[in-house]
Specification:
The chain is mainly β. The chain is built from 2 helices and 10 strands, in the order H-E-E-E-E-E-E-H-E-E-E-E.
Length: 177
């Protein structure tokens, strides 16, 4: 019970006094710099919507959508829309690394699972996150079930859509905005 009561106070304190954060003030600009940790439940397909929670120098939450800056579905870029602003994420390097990995697979159940890590970069911030820059290290763990072919065998084709899938994603790194 104490954990439940302390969690909102801890998050509020983190938002007001982020650990490792610094602020440099000029006549017109306040710069923020520090560590963030993001927890993401990603979209399951390009153009779909996922959820994100960010703690640290950014204390906010919102949605993710895998699209290019032009708004077209993409696996290599994401737009993060938080309550105080948003930013873009370049996933290209992370995807090259994780797409090269081979998941563990069970032919009996058609289940597959694996994990991977790699960098992402943040840019094109809006609202409270205008001018954001930074590189985060992403760790993802996933599990899914491949569809079955008419023969009953598992369809492990690259373009086969899993019948069920979940992914846990965390990202940690330093940002400035």
């Amino acid at each position: 019970m104490k954990k439940l009561l302390l969690a909102p106070a801890a998050l509020a304190a983190m938002a007001l006094y982020p650990a490792g954060a610094s602020a440099a003030t000029t006549a017109t600009t306040v710069m923020h710099s520090g560590t963030i940790v993001a927890f993401v439940n990603p979209a399951q397909a390009p153009g779909g919507t996922g959820t994100i929670f960010v703690i640290g120098v950014i204390a906010d939450y919102g949605t993710t959508v895998n699209v290019t800056a032009a708004g077209k579905p993409s696996e290599n870029y994401a737009r993060i829309n938080l309550t105080k602003g948003g930013f873009e994420v370049n996933l290209t390097t992370l995807n090259k690394i994780t797409n090269a990995e081979t998941p563990t697979f069970s032919a009996a159940t058609c289940m597959f699972w694996g994990s991977g890590s790699g960098p992402i970069t943040l840019s094109n911030g809006t609202g409270a996150y205008a001018g954001i820059t930074g590189t985060l290290t992403v760790h993802e763990i996933y599990v899914g079930v491949a569809p079955r072919l008419a023969s009953g065998r598992c369809n492990m084709a690259q373009n086969a859509t899993p019948t069920h899938m979940t992914m846990q994603v965390t990202a940690t790194g330093h940002v400035s905005f």
